[in-house]
Amino acid sequence: MIEVLQVIFVAALPVSELRGAVPLGIGVFGLSVWETYIWAVIGNMIPVFFLLWFLPAISKFMIKKWDFADRFFSWIFERTRKRTEAKINKYGAPALILFVAIPLPFTGAWTGSIAAFLFGIKARRALPLIFLGVLIAGGLVTLATTGFVMFFK
User: Fold this and answer.
1) How far apart are CA 101 and CA 111, in angstroms?
2) What would the DSSP string read from start to end of 75-95?
3) What are the two backbone dihedrals, phi and then psi, of residue 36, each rounded to the nearest 5 degrees?
4) 8 Å CB contact between 15 and 138
5) What would the pLDDT profile of 24-54 be if each residue is shown by its tens digit?
6) Strands (E), the chain
7) For residues 136 and 84, what is the distance between their CA atoms, to the nearest angstrom?
8) Range 18-24 contact pairs with CB under 8 angstroms and sequence separation of 24 or more
9) Confidence at residue 149, expressed as pLDDT on a 0 to 100 scale
């Protein structure tokens, strides 16, 4: 059970997300492919709920309260905007699916949630788009981890 909790925790972290959780579950802990995939997807989606519904209020509160928060949110929002703006403007909200689905650094559920907030995509609309992207990313990372797909050959 502790292995499952570790997979969930790693999947919920903003840097590792599925890219770290799936290899951990399959390669290190020896969990089954499906068990790892399901727990990693669940773990990756946990922060999405909080980000989509609470990021607007939290960012406003922190920006008013602390100068460093204003600088931090300005930095993270600008970085996310640069990475996502062209795709969001060209393809609209469904671009979130593609952005989240690509298992590369600084793409994923966390950045997709921030992008949804920045571009005014309502949480109810963004959640299923991000979820679909997480499912696809989880599948790609699982295939790569199990050797079905060799991305870096």
Assistant:
1) 11
2) HHHHHHHHHHHHHHHHH-TTH
3) -65, -45
4) no
5) 999 999 999 999 999 999 999 999 999 999 9
6) none
7) 18
8) 18/44, 18/103, 18/108, 18/134, 18/137, 18/138, 18/141, 19/103, 19/105, 19/108, 19/141, 22/138, 22/141, 22/142, 22/145, 23/141, 23/145
9) 56
Asked whether 19 and 144 are in contact (CB, 8 A), the reply is no
Under a CB-based contact definition with an 8 Å cutoff, are residues 127 and 35 in contact?
Answer: no
Q: Cβ contacts of residue 14 below 8 Å, gap of 6+? A: 47, 108, 110
Q: DSSP code of 28?
A: I
How far is 39 from 25, CA to CA, in rounded Å?
Answer: 9
Residue 21 CA, chain-centre distance (Å), reads: 12
**Would you state the pLDDT for residue 74?**
82
3-state helix, strand, coil in the chain (%, to 5): 80, 0, 20
pTM of the model as a whole:
0.83
- The residues near 106 (Cβ < 8 Å, ≥ 6 apart) are 79, 83
